[in-house]
Write a sequence for this structure.
């Protein structure tokens, strides 16, 4: 194939991808139109082959006429990789720098946006319990994907991940014994129900849904990386609308407010872990 052929093929692929995301938006209301193109294409091709097809055009026809096929594509498009105390230094800095601020609040509303299967939510609940703050917290954990939320609600995770989770917990400054938080049964770890007592899990789409409360802390880690710059900016506006004055935004190492329209609304609490405080 010549360089010109390659270019034409790539252009066609982009047109088909745009037609697919537009069709999904019009028909199902899920808006992937501003997701970043390279990762979108990779995931779409995976689904094309898994459905036994050979073109994106074929997938357009299939997902628009078969909602089960749409559900499968939805699972491919929402990357759900997560872990307990993922990037432990984030939790360490949160404990050191944010927890003392939260101690001065009588009541704390927290939003985990894009919580996936909930490991991040249970990790933060453990941290807040250890710091004696959990009782005054009301936690909202949301994701676009209903299937991952069902797993999150169950609080049951594979036992095989507990070794990694335990070392993350220790590196995150955990001051108890991690295995006290769950009961091992067969291949699963069943987490203490008290950890989700103050948690509401709900479906929420960061692209199409509005702000639903005002929060003192918003976490959104490893989600915005899948969005293009314009969409990242829109979602940052949504967080700002949902943020109390002096509220904390926790993005983690991979994301930043730096090149978005909200940059001057926040001060840095921790530059490396991208913990910000709303000051304007
Ligand atoms: C890689 S996981 C990150 C999970 C967790 N925050 C962490 O850092 O470990 C990304 C999550 O974002 C969710 N997501 C993707 N697009 C979304 C959207 N438009 N609205 C809400 N959640 C979305 C996916 O379903 C997925 O569960």
């Amino acid at each position: 194939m010549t360089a010109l052929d390659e270019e034409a093929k790539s252009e066609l692929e982009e047109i088909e991808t745009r037609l697919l995301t537009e069709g999904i938006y019009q028909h199902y209301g899920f808006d992937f139109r501003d997701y970043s193109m390279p990762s979108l294409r990779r995931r779409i091709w995976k689904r094309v082959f898994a459905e036994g097809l050979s073109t994106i055009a074929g997938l357009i026809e299939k997902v628009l006429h078969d909602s089960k096929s749409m559900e499968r594509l939805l699972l491919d498009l929402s990357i759900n990789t997560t872990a307990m105390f993922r990037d432990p230094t984030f939790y360490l800095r949160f404990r050191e720098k944010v927890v003392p601020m939260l101690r001065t609040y009588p009541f704390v509303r927290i939003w985990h946006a894009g919580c996936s299967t909930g490991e991040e939510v249970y990790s933060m609940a453990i941290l807040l319990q250890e710091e004696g703050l959990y009782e005054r917290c009301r936690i909202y954990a949301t994701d676009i994907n209903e299937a991952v939320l069902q797993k999150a609600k169950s609080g049951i995770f594979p036992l095989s991940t507990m070794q990694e989770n335990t070392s993350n917990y220790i590196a995150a400054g955990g001051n108890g014994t991690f295995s006290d938080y769950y009961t091992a049964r067969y291949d699963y770890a069943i987490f203490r129900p008290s950890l989700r007592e103050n948690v509401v899990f709900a479906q929420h789409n960061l692209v199409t849904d509005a702000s639903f409360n005002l929060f003192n802390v918003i976490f959104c880690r490893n989600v915005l990386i899948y969005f293009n710059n314009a969409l990242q900016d829109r979602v940052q506006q949504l967080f700002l609308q949902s943020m109390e004055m002096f509220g904390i935004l926790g993005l983690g190492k991979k994301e930043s407010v730096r090149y978005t329209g909200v940059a001057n609304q926040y001060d840095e609490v921790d530059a490396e872990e991208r913990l910000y405080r709303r000051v304007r």
Observations:
- Residues 78-82, 86, 114-116, 120, 143-145, 148, 205-207, 221-223 surround S-adenosylmethionine (CB under 6 Å).
- Residues 29 and 214 are 25 Å apart (CA to CA).
